[in-house]
């Protein structure tokens, strides 16, 4: 069987995977790529948002430059191992002088995790920085990730993707619905990490 980490990293000659989501009337096009150390400052700034930090229950919050470096390096290590595929989501920001697109800025993150050869399901996750919310970033990025996940791993048994969130996170429910992840069932709380019940949304590979 083909090693999944090598397959995922073979999308470009330099070994990286770059995904794209088209622009909409609400926002510019998105580029999704693996995390790198140049993202650390923007990552730390994003997690200063108390709304985002509230939902980061399963991973250490990168609240300093050193923690951000460790977080990015951990994502890179787990990507290389083929067990977790985390993408930074970026959009082209306008140049203050000309108004034309300039450098890409971080607007969120998406992840495909619990990917195991022969296992029929994996899990997706996402988040959006405070200043980019309301522009359709999460649904577009999640759709790009979903398409890539099924194209890359379906031949090895991936049949469905799970999306989980706590019941008190209605924003995630809305993103799931917009992204073709219908509600499947309610999961019981699992404190201390998950003190409340959760919603499980499921998207199948053969869904229209």
Oligomer: single chain
Total number of domains:
1
| Helix content estimate | 25-40%
Estimate what percentage of residues fall within beta strands. 25-35%
Please outline the helices and strands:
Blueprint: H1 4-8, E1 19-21, E2 30-34, H2 40-46, H3 50-55, H4 65-80, E3 84-94, E4 101-113, E5 121-128, H5 137-153, E6 160-166, H6 170-178, E7 183-187, E8 198-204
Parallel strand pairs: 5-6
Antiparallel strand pairs: 1-2, 2-3, 3-4, 4-5, 6-8, 7-8
Helix pairs in contact: 2-4
Short description:
The protein has 208 residues and is an alpha+beta fold. The chain has helices at 4-8, 40-46, 50-55, 65-80, 137-153, 170-178; strands at 19-21, 30-34, 84-94, 101-113, 121-128, 160-166, 183-187, 198-204.
Description:
The chain is an alpha+beta fold and 208 residues long. The protein is built from 6 helices and 8 strands. The chain has one domain: 3-Layer(aba) Sandwich (Aminopeptidase). It has helices spanning 4-8, 40-46, 50-55, 65-80, 137-153, 170-178, and strands spanning 19-21, 30-34, 84-94, 101-113, 121-128, 160-166, 183-187, 198-204. The chain has an 8-stranded mixed β-sheet with strand order 1-2-3-4-5-6-8-7, sandwiched between helices. The two termini are 28 Å apart.
